[in-house]
Write a structure and sequence with these properties.
8% of the residues lie in helices and 59% in strands. With 155 residues, it is mainly beta. It starts with a helix and ends with a strand. The relative contact order is 0.16. Residues 15-25 have low confidence and may be disordered.
Amino acid sequence: EASRQRDRLARQRRGLGVPALVAADRPEQGARLELPGMGLGGRVLLDSWSGTMMGMPFEGTGMTGFNNVDGKWWGTWADNFSTGLMTTSGSCDADPQKGCTFTGTYVDPMSGKTRQNRQIVSWPSPDDERMEMWEKGADGKEWKMMEIVVKRVKK
């Protein structure tokens, strides 16, 4: 089942290399998603982002895979806004519109403290990918800190 989901995710994401809208509170067009495809023998989805974000040069890379041992999906993320690595794990629904839900941790570059977040990645249509990142505030309430919407370029 996991290999079918991974193959479906790879097919779904093929051709999504277009400008993305990124922000929690204000849309910004600038970062570009490039999908090198699959890596590690076809077991891992690879992402590469580059462009401008918040007026600064931006580049980042991520990997998403399925762990056959514990039965969970996992992800990693690193970018030039920080020297740290974000790690996540979670599950994916067979329905792409419901998508995948991950929980993860990273070290906040501003405070130096470990922070937890929740990410939802879904595919509302064959031409759209949406990623929402949620985090708990000081009051303990969850707030959406970022949303990325990627649309397929029609040729």
